[in-house]
From TrEMBL:
<feature type="compositionally biased region" description="Polar residues">
    <location>
        <begin position="21"/>
        <end position="31"/>
    </location>
</feature>
<feature type="region of interest" description="Disordered">
    <location>
        <begin position="1"/>
        <end position="32"/>
    </location>
</feature>
<dbReference type="InterPro" id="IPR013123">
    <property type="entry name" value="SpoU_subst-bd"/>
</dbReference>
<dbReference type="Pfam" id="PF08032">
    <property type="entry name" value="SpoU_sub_bind"/>
</dbReference>
<dbReference type="InterPro" id="IPR029026">
    <property type="entry name" value="tRNA_m1G_MTases_N"/>
</dbReference>
<dbReference type="Pfam" id="PF00588">
    <property type="entry name" value="SpoU_methylase"/>
</dbReference>
<feature type="compositionally biased region" description="Basic and acidic residues">
    <location>
        <begin position="1"/>
        <end position="14"/>
    </location>
</feature>
<dbReference type="GO" id="GO:0008173">
    <property type="term" value="F:RNA methyltransferase activity"/>
</dbReference>
<dbReference type="InterPro" id="IPR001537">
    <property type="entry name" value="SpoU_MeTrfase"/>
</dbReference>
<feature type="domain" description="RNA 2-O ribose methyltransferase substrate binding">
    <location>
        <begin position="39"/>
        <end position="112"/>
    </location>
</feature>
<dbReference type="GO" id="GO:0032259">
    <property type="term" value="P:methylation"/>
</dbReference>
<protein>
    <submittedName>
        <fullName>RNA methyltransferase</fullName>
    </submittedName>
</protein>
<dbReference type="InterPro" id="IPR029028">
    <property type="entry name" value="Alpha/beta_knot_MTases"/>
</dbReference>
<dbReference type="InterPro" id="IPR004441">
    <property type="entry name" value="rRNA_MeTrfase_TrmH"/>
</dbReference>
<dbReference type="GO" id="GO:0005829">
    <property type="term" value="C:cytosol"/>
</dbReference>
<keyword id="KW-0489">Methyltransferase</keyword>
<keyword id="KW-0808">Transferase</keyword>
Amino acid sequence: MTRRPPPKDRSAHERGRRATIAQSETRSPFRSASPDLVTLYGAHPVRAALTARKRKLLTLYATETTLPRINELARAAGLEPRLVDARDLERRLGPDAVHQGLLLEARPLPEADISDIVSVSGVVLALDQITDPHNVGAILRTACAFNVDAVIVTERHSPEFSGVLAKAASGALEFTTIVSVVNLARALDELADRGYARVGLDSDGAESLSTVTLSKPLVLALGAEDKGLRRLTRERCDAVARLDLPGPIKSLNVSNACAAALSVVTTRLG
């Protein structure tokens, strides 16, 4: 009598098959996060990085629909785009990220010092521990639009210059000189030694920005929304001015206040 082989454990086989599929779906094609890795996503940030070429570019990922629109620019920058699925980008960035089918891995921008600031517009921004990446990104976009010479940030209590911030900056990150300092008060002293006038912006400022004495070169200091300018920063300013607003609300989001202040400053300085 011939014995039949024992029946296969189909349930075990099915579990193994599903595990293999799950593993292949979760295996990321991207680099692991590290301090020297910057992730840029979205059309404007990625195109700006490919155009400016101020940082070392590593790998560009594009979806099938986006690839034809970025291929030529990528190859001109020395990159061969890698094809990925939109679901890969969502797993990497989160479902709410507006990636537009593009993700670029790169190195951080070269570090800049106060001595590297070249006076063109004669205006510099100093951000006093502004931590929200959306606000800082919007400020960078405004700074770039007004051709500000540099944006100074604190080494601590500043957002990562990648991802969300770069998306909010809409490409301005690649075209704005960013100086990171350990001590903002000391940096303001150094700027004063170089002939900069220092004006702090505060909704409770004693003078109006439209009438306060201004001269080039000028550094405009902006404080965080919840705390404003810190004491040492305020003490280093030659004047602390307010924006006079006609409406019942007398204070603005810091990025909006920055745009309004730069409009007043650049108009007055000519």
